[in-house]
Amino acid sequence: MRSPRAGTRSTRCILSFATLVLTAAGPLAAQSAEWYEMSSRRQTDGIERLEVDVEYAVGRLDVGPVDADLLYQLDLRYDARRFEPIRHWNAADGTGHLRLRFDTEDGDLDIDDFDDVGSDELGALTLGLSRDVPTRLSLGVMATEARLQLGGVALERFVFRTGASEASIEFDAVNPVRMDRLELAAAAADFRASGLGSARFDRLEFVGAVGDVRLDFSGDWEGSAEAEINMGLGALRLIFPRALGVRIAKRGILTSFESVGFDEVDGAYRTPNWDSASSRLDLSIRAGFGDIDVTFVD
Amino acid sequence: MNQTNHSNRLTGEREHLRMTTLLYDSIRTATTVAVLGTAALLASGHAIGPVALAAQEAPERAELTAQQARDVPDITGSTVLLARDVARLELALASGDTHAIELNDGEVLVDGARRGTYEPGSAFEQAWRDLLRNPELGATESLGGLLAAWEPPAEVSPGTSGVSAVLDAFDRYDPAAAVAPATAGQAMPDAAVDGQVTIVPRAGSLEQLGERLRELNETLGRISGEEFGLEGDFSLVVHDDYRIADGSTIEGDVALLGGTLTVDGDIEGDVLVLGGRLLLEPGSLVMGDVRSVDGEVETVGATVTGEILSLSAGERLGDRLAADIHADRSDRRPEWDYERRRDRGFFGSIARNVSRTLSDVVGTIVWIVGLTLFGAGLVYFAPGRLEAIAAEARVDVLRSFGVGLAGQLLFVPILLLLVVLIVTWLVVPFYVLAVAVAVPAGYLAVARALGESVVDRRYDLFERFNLNRQNTYYYVLNGVIVLLAPFAVAAVLQLFGSMLGFLRGLTLFLAVVLTWAAATTGFGAVILTRGGGLARDLPGFRRRRSVPLDDLRAPEPPAEDDVPGSGDATPADEATGDDDA
């Protein structure tokens, strides 16, 4: 018959082994990070148009304008043991193409790799773009804190896709060039965009899955634009300047919409100044489940 | 432990000593390399731009600079070495030969042969060093006249053997004396008289140095994420303060290893900065990339047609790169193997796998403890309902699973219906709360049933750890352990890294499916029993209706006439009042 102390001995053996492993693994794990700081910039020499495609997984992302003589500036702080930046540049016919991606040691990005990593240990990417060279910018970010100060950046097209992150976009100065398309997609995020009137877009498309979304269309409007918003589940807050003529066509019976300040015409909601406004925004909203809150500002 | 980790453990003193040694080695190597390389390449007809290596004495650091002049018929280049005990001038001649004059720790050497002596630290040595620092030394067209006209200070006796040796050596560059036969008594080296100079290289060559720098440049490319190579050869290697004058053009790539490189002219190539400061003055032009590691680059007003890339990683990266440059050819494998950067190394991978395994195992244990505590609460506060749900789940598994699946599918539609029917809005929170409680409660009821089933089988493992106690708390504990065991197994499989990645993924999948199946079955049992309110007498299942605390009471020792195994109820059954239905 087995001794009643056998189980206790086994437990002690297991605990002793675990202690040994923890003791050995601790110092090894402590030296896991190896931080690199990389700065890459190019002058505008000979480049008339720029296309930037960036995919950034984890960390903090900041985007803004750079000095006059620079085409772009890219400052990156990353843990070389976790990531490998993959940059690609080519220029042809006056158009420069910049691509930045990150690879992990295993070749695939696994968000689980960063479960035990604090936000201050994830690194940062700061991207500066020219105010003079028309730029098509595509940003795909995942578990990041993104702050995009795009005022003054010459954005010809802007595509922003974000996963589970906190993201804000601000156009605090007028876009020097007309933007033909502004595409925003937020999966599960606290998403805020302000000064969209200064973005000078012709068409805006927003897709939001789950989360709180705040789209502020104030700013310096020039001309008219159209926008399409698709919301899954969450709260959508829209802010319009009073001088802007707004027309909203809404679909989705499970979404509440407070229509104060709008006149219902032909199944759509229009601001009283729709016919007289110098700038108009024709907005189509398709929402699944949630609230749409509209605010007018001067 | 990989090499990186090993390097990280170097102490500062050791690192400093190593770097100092490397720098001194570099002086010796680069000097020979420059001379040999220049001579060899010129002799072989290879087109090579100006190669410059300059040195300046410092308390613990010697540096090297070379400059090239190409328009002087006799002297095509000069190499200067200034170190603590050495002050050396090497002249590259148009014939392909070299001529070296060196003050070395009290001795004057001409082409390696001892020709005289001098007093270290004397005015003569100081004057010699001043000559070697003279910027006009780079003007090769007038270099011959400069050397021929050089004179030691007045307080130095021209008759001193060392002084005479230097003056004699310089006389051959005097245009007036160039064609004249050597003055009688002059101590011209035989080799020079014969027009042949033999220098035994200590290590490497200029080509090797250039190759090493190119490899390093490619390494930088890998680190910074873009593969790039140099467009051409290194035409200028600078290890001290140096200026590329306005109007001059460097045809090829430039490497800055230390000091300040001021550029007023143009560089038709890339610039590799490995320490030091690159100052591109307004109006200057770099027709390539500028890549800097732990260096300083200023480009205000200058034009750089390529990328300006800076990379830093504290002192470690710069030191390692410098070590790579100066590494001996026979040991040229970098101490820091960049190719293996993606690989953590054997021990690094083990540490990572162990860390992840421990993290996941602890996480699983936390879940086990949490669920067991929740289950214990159910056992304590609602034992009858838990028993009823567990009985339903165990006896009628398929029916419970089917109802649970239907309940899951109908959850959202019912919720939407409750929302749409405005009068039912008040029900929504209760509905959501009820489902939120029912799912984990059902899961725990399944765990309870599963735990009892396991205990009934009396596995040896449970006997070993004394887990075969027959009360509801242990049933729940055992059941939760069994249900979560696949997660623990998947965690342990991480120890083997990607080797068993597929198996781990499969185990995780099964664990998730098992969890979902248990939760669904339990949810269905909750629905079927109306939250455990509809207790059914189910065959083959022991209902436990007594106060749960009785479970914790130690069983009474059997009476003398109450022999275990006689077919009577067990002490546990008596304590809990269980009876088979």
Strand content of chain A: over 45%
In percent, how much strand structure appears in the residues of chain B? Answer: 5-15%
Helix content of chain B: 40-55%
Give unreliable regions of chain B as ranges: 1-73, 177-205, 324-345, 540-555, 559-581
Query: What would you call the structural class of chain A?
Result: mainly beta
What is shown here, in short?
The complex is a heterodimer of chains A (298) and B (581). Chain A is mainly beta and 298 residues long.
Can you walk me through this structure?
With 298 residues, chain A is mainly beta. In chain A, 9% of the residues lie in helices and 56% in strands. Chain A has 1 helix and 18 strands. In chain A, strand 4 and strand 5 form a beta hairpin. Chain B has a 6-stranded antiparallel sheet, with helices on both faces. In chain B, strands 7-10-13-16-19 form a 5-stranded parallel sheet. A 4-stranded parallel sheet of chain B has the order 8-11-14-17, with no helix packed on it. In chain B, helix 9 (345-381) packs across helix 12 (427-457). The interface between A and B is large, with 40 and 40 residues.
